[in-house]
Design a protein that fits this description.
alpha/beta, eight-stranded mixed β-sheet, 8 strands, elongated
């Protein structure tokens, strides 16, 4: 067992460990160098640790917060060896991550029916794929799912979501390219109420060049949804590409300024060594990471568990690469 003794299915744990392989390999190498040849924690070790975290895309402000917390522990305990430091680092990394809105798995009872999730994010981050994977996971867990294709500015977006709806076997509400996105969102919610859907996933346009226009468009979508369900959308899920490192932080900054993002999905962690950016994004914006993408298969979208994520970063692979 790792540092955190929590429930996490064996299959999910294996997917997480495999998906973070590139990140953890570089991260553990940097940590090893940070305290190489040292038996106790001193100023040099902490400086090396700070550098290791920053170069692992944890980010400057998040790294400073972690180091500050560790320095307090070191000053209190007076003497710490490097093995103890590793345990403390794991604990403090998890502590700075915000807790999720709801502690649930895909098969847990959702707090609303229908539970409306508005999905936002720039083009190319894996937004449509994430919606498809979410639809699959929720359906597999016994939920009635409905998709809404409100990204009407790109024909490819509607086509891609349609393909996912057919692949997963869930219905979709769509209109022709160039239609009013808010109208599609309204029709989707109306259909969800009529069908008795459990989960509604609404795609939106992935543009960021004009923040004012983005805010206006998302605001209009929210208003029309609330005509049918006053407290919806229940989640505004921002999808970010983890492989872009600090660029993902900038995207989070723009979207959180433009709309009330309250949960995050970080994708493409399996193809990057920049998985540390998950900590940077969640800590800086105080928005919980809800899902992470760790592979190309439909099963490779996991409900995020901050303890398991940190634990995995510190675990050596069973079959290390040659």
């Amino acid at each position: 067992m790792g540092l955190f003794d929590r429930w996490f299915g064996k299959k999910e744990k294996a997917s997480l460990d495999q998906g973070l392989q590139k990140t953890k390999q570089g991260f553990l190498e940097k940590l090893s160098r940070a305290w190489s040849g040292k038996s106790r924690v001193d100023e040099e070790v902490l400086e090396n640790l700070e550098e290791a975290l920053i170069t692992s895309d944890v980010g400057i402000s998040t790294t400073e917060a972690i180091i500050e917390r560790i320095e307090k522990r070191v000053s209190q305990d007076k003497y710490l060896n490097t093995e103890e430091l590793s345990q403390i680092l794991q604990s403090e990394m998890a502590a700075i991550l915000p807790d999720p809105l709801h502690d649930y798995r895909f098969d847990s009872v959702l707090p609303h029916k229908p539970h409306v999730i508005l999905v936002v994010g720039v083009n190319g981050v894996g937004k449509t794929t994430t919606i498809g994977k979410l639809a699959h996971q929720f359906k597999k867990a016994g939920k009635e799912v409905l998709l809404g294709a409100a990204d009407t500015f790109r024909a490819a977006a509607v086509d891609q979501l349609t393909i996912w709806s057919e692949r997963v076997g869930v219905p979709i509400v769509k209109q022709s390219m160039g239609s009013d996105p808010a109208a599609v969102a309204f029709d989707t919610v109306q259909s969800a109420l009529a069908r008795g859907s459990d989960v509604v996933l609404i795609d939106t346009a992935g543009r960021l060049h004009n923040k004012a226009h983005l805010m206006e468009e998302l605001g209009k979508i929210k208003r029309v949804i609330q005509k049918s369900i006053p407290d919806a959308p229940h989640e505004v899920l921002l999808v970010l590409d983890g492989s872009t490192g600090q660029n993902a932080v900038e995207q989070a900054r723009h979207f959180s300024a433009a709309t009330s993002v309250n949960s995050l999905a970080v994708t493409k962690l399996d193809g990057t060594a920049k998985g540390g950016v998950v900590l940077a994004i969640a800590h800086q914006f105080k928005i919980p990471v809800k899902f992470i993408g760790v592979g190309e298969q439909m099963e490779d979208l996991l409900v995020f568990d901050k303890h398991e994520f940190v634990d995995s970063l510190f675990s050596l692979p069973d079959n290390p690469p040659a």
